[in-house]
Amino acid sequence: MSDVHLRQTLDAVPTYQAGKPAASGIAGQVGFKLSSNENPYPPLPSVLEQIRAAAASINRYPDASVGTLRTALSTFLDVPVEHIATGTGSVGILGQIVQATCDAGDEVVHAWRSFEAYPIVAGLAGARPVQVAVDDQGRHQLDKIGAAITDRTRVVLLCTPNNPTGPALCHEEVEAFLPQVPSDVLVVIDEAYVEFVNDPAAADGLALYRSHPNVVCLRTFSKAYGLAGLRVGYAIAHAPVAAALRKTAVTFGVNALAEVAAVASLKAHDELQDRVADLVSERSRVLHKLQAQGWTVPDAQGNFIWLPLGTASEAFTVAADQAGLSLRRFGDEGVRVTIAESAANDMVLDIARAFAHAQSDSGNQLSR
Ligand SMILES: *Cc1c(COP(=O)(O)O)cnc(C)c1O
Question: Lower CB count within 10 Å: N or C terminus of the chain?
Fold first, then answer.
């Protein structure tokens, strides 16, 4: 036993559960990892080439100001460069946000079930995560989130589209919600999946940031841009907030390979957008086929779908594992399935069909 003093607050902080790797599958069949909402496509050749070239200089520290990427983002998004802060993925930025805003005992309000990093980053700062249940469609209940704000609240996290349940927030409802939030509370619009959204009524985080000084918009290169392994994300916020987020960043956290890959990816935006469009069309194919099989599935605006399986979640995950598909189960709430290459999606549909038949044979309802 060690006597080393560790902060007691750590005892209450859950450990991040990473998605399982692809299962080996049944004989002769390839396995697929559909458990981390990753992009199934390998990096673009133009991006890889930049990474290779930059690798020759990794004896040097990266640019601490991440200036090339911030300048490129400033042009790409048409926002001042001072309004951009970068981090090691948007999980890194979330940590910077909580460090910049919360003292021990302060509160971070967010929907639940939502992104599992939220209670972790809040807890690490000694802040208290205040969780507000999503409704039976997996949607944020903004009225209840508003009612949960107290004088200890420093941050409200809105996840749109919501991971893992799928729906995006509606722009008008967020517009109506923001005036209820005290102006000294930071509202984070986490848009990790914004590139996959095709609901025209969905919240536009950039527009909300432009019109509200206490709104910060979070984006990442991990999902649509396929750079999950390099760890780079960014925040768009008004000058004082963005400066605080740069101050609380890990020094040299965004490395040179990540920076060149992100800049090259912005240049290859159109090519990447074609891949995103393929994934979005696969998403609607899977959604419609599941509905035809009798499943009740919430709207899906990210690169994943949510099966609200309740207590059948474990059995479904086991069936998928046996077929070589690694999915993400959240207790007895449901299972999140990443949309990937069509062969993997076809396997999901096969498993879902067999599972639905077995369930109806035993007289069970598919979803809660
Ligand atoms: C994946 C994800 C992120 C981003 O993760 P990083 O890889 O750290 O950029 C942020 N928010 C949500 C809701 C996510 O699902």
Answer: N
